[in-house]
Amino acid sequence: MMNEEKVIIFQLKDEEYAVPVQHVKSIERMQPITRIPRTASFVKGVINLRGVVTPIIDLRSRFEIEEVSHTDTTRIIIVSVGTIEAGLIVDAANDVIDLDKEKIEPPPEVVGGVDAEYIQGVAKIEKRLLILLDLVKVLNPEKLDVQPTKESIQ
Amino acid sequence: MEMTRYLDIFIEESKEHLQSINQQAMLLEKTPGELSIVNEIFRSAHTLKGMSATMGYEDLANLTHCMENVLDAIRNNKLNVSSSVLDVLFASLDHLEAMVVEISEGGSGKRDVTATVKELEALEKGEVPQSTQAESKNKAGSLQDYDQYEKQIIIQSKEQGFHAYELSISLREDCILKAARVYMVFEVIEQIGEIIKTLPAVDMLETEQFGTHFALSILTKESAENVKERILKVSEINTVEVNDIKADQLNISSNFENEENKKIEQQEVSPEDKKSEVQQPSKKSEVQQPSNTSSSGKTIRVNIERLDQLMNLFEELVIDRGRLEEISKSLKSMELNETVERMSRVSGDLQNIILTMRMVPVEQVFNRFPRMIRGLAKDLGKKVNLEIVGAETELDRTVIDEIGDPLVHLLRNSIDHGIENPEVRSSKGKNETGTIYLRAFHSGNHVFIEIQDDGAGINKQKVLSKAIENGILTKEMSENLTDKQCFELLFASGFSTADVVSDISGRGVGLDVVKNKIESLGGSIAVDSTEGSGTIFSIQLPLTLSIMSVMLVEISREKYAIPLSSIIETAIIRKEDILSAHNQKVIDFRGKVVPLVNMKDIFEVPGSMESGQHVPVVVVRKGDKMAALVVDSFIGQQEIVLKSLGQYLTSVFAISGATILGDGQVALILDCNALIK
């Protein structure tokens, strides 16, 4: 049984993605987000998560999938990797399953438009194809291209 | 003596540094080739040296200086790390620890360290010590230092017919249960008298942290022969030496100590005061003890962690308070309103208390500098005058605790490298006495500390050639550097411009340590200099206050908080009063031309421009520069809890953090320092 990993499955456009359950702190409904000016476009802003100011990333925009307006099924998955804590906006959070680690295969070059860089592997379970995200890379702060301070006054 | 106020800080910090040196030294033993560890030890030793010199503990400073020399030799590959080198290092650490412990118990921190110092010096010259045996003997031999209290006891007991002996006991080499033998010796002595001091300390004896020698000071009515005989009855004891502690021996050392103290107490005690000199020995012990007890009665030491917890809980309360205020406003119930108002007042008072509990005037750090400057100036034969401005500026306790070392480094630098010799100064037409300004002031969310000297300034060419020599920079790179970039090189690791290594500063450990430390506090440091007329180091530190007063403003539909500390005024100006200069909109604000900053543009706020006749602006400042921020409306003044944006968003432009408003929404806090360059 050591080879099984519990993962949370969520949906983004037509694909199903998985993140290990130990990285997931909670799943929240959509709530008002305070925009943070001049950050990368996929950073939607911050929310008040029970007293903690938590940054929110739109995964669609992170993976350069066209954005859609939020629906009733839209969820924010709060994940934590190391000292970083953030919320990921996904189309829907579907399921929790035990994933046999042996079924995980290395990622093909391009999966559903998402850069292979962010993918740890893929797993085929019955007829579903699950894409395992590499959260460390998804949450790499170096990818935040903060805009130059051109408008400050001399 | 003012110094007593910093004694606690000194002891705490010394313990920390010793701890880290110990740990690193253990690591070094495992991986002898690792120079980064040597660097770590070196830095700790360097800081320790600086601190103890400041506090006037010469033996401590002396020993650490010798340690530093040896470490430096290791660092420069002149000396290999061998077990014998480490043995000497550890021996020095034992000494240092014992001295710090003695100081914390109210002693003078004096200790005979000449043997170890010699060994260190020998190491530095490349000689390997013969054996550790000799060293442990030295350790056991140096029992002569008694603190005031112990001396008192010895003298009093002598008057009552007791003998005071110093025993030097050595166990047999093959002794297995050393602690047990020590215990048996203690048993024997306690039957006939009393033990007043042991070397090493009792707990070290109990855990067998000694060689084969140990020493005891005892009081007994038995004769020396008798004592010796009784102890030799314990098995596995090799030799016992019994020496009488002579009363005059004690007096001499206590007099010596007094002289030391007088030197420290500056020139206030005039030499003609011979009467007081005679009375001093007895007076001193009387004075010292009550002062210790009285200070411990007034205050109570609280773990800073508990204060943090208190603060966190209070933050939650402040958020709920804001929520309650809003609810009561919308409910319009008189009774609820009154209760909430009362609660707000009480919690406001509570907040003040909690805040002031953590805030300490920077004076606490600054006050130890004049004496240090005076001493240094004397050692270097320079004339220096220290001007302190803004000592009442308050800073969070955690920052205060950390900022001392960096400031010591910088001040030492200023005196050593900055201020010239009197002759040089007068030949340049300057006042013979150099001046160092130490300033502290609030500005916006920050506290600035500046160290400015009117010395030689930084020689740019010298900095560049040194940087090239040390491999920090290539020749090509050096040609295009601006003054600022050039000065930045001073903070690079392994950089030093001093021609001669002195014990004041100048090994190049100082400035990079300073920079690291300040950055770890969330601050920054900059340097500016004009050759010939002086240098200024400017440190910017955050106010780590987690609760602050802000002005809430609305820009389109977004709410932002502007810290009250950086606001000069809010105003509503007429459209026609906006002028244009160099494509920059400006306003005339009380006779000053102030640039207008449209927050909507800067923050790319969605929504159309409102075209009213009147424009609300918030005039903010950074230092003496100002800017007028254009907003849509003012909401009002509020107390908020500062929250960080988390580890993911670390460098957001012009936003210093966030807060949670009464309605549960997040509002961002403006960083006016970033808006004004």
From TrEMBL, chain B:
Metal-binding as UniProt keyword: no
List where Basic and acidic residues composition bias occurs.
259-277
In the Enzyme Commission scheme, what number(s) does this protein have?
A: 2.7.13.3
What SMART domains does the database record attribute to this sequence?
A: CheW, H-kinase_dim, HATPase_c, HPT
Biased composition regions of type Polar residues, renumbered to the chain: 278-298
The UniProt annotation puts the region (Disordered) at 257-300
Q: Where is the HPt domain?
A: 1-103
Reaction(s) catalysed (UniProt annotation): ATP + protein L-histidine = ADP + protein N-phospho-L-histidine
Q: Domain CheW-like, which positions?
A: 547-677
Any one Pfam family match given in the protein's UniProt record, by short name: P2
Which keywords does the record carry? Answer: ATP-binding, Chemotaxis, Kinase, Nucleotide-binding, Phosphoprotein, Transferase, Two-component regulatory system
Residues that the record marks as modified (Phosphohistidine) are 46
What SUPFAM superfamilies is this protein classified in?
ATPase domain of HSP90 chaperone/DNA topoisomerase II/histidine kinase (SSF55874), CheW-like (SSF50341), CheY-binding domain of CheA (SSF55052), Histidine-containing phosphotransfer domain, HPT domain (SSF47226), Homodimeric domain of signal transducing histidine kinase (SSF47384)
Q: Domain Histidine kinase: where? A: 295-545
Database matches in PANTHER family: CHEMOTAXIS PROTEIN CHEA, SENSOR HISTIDINE KINASE CHEA
Listed name of the protein: Chemotaxis protein CheA
Q: Which organism is it from?
A: Fictibacillus nanhaiensis
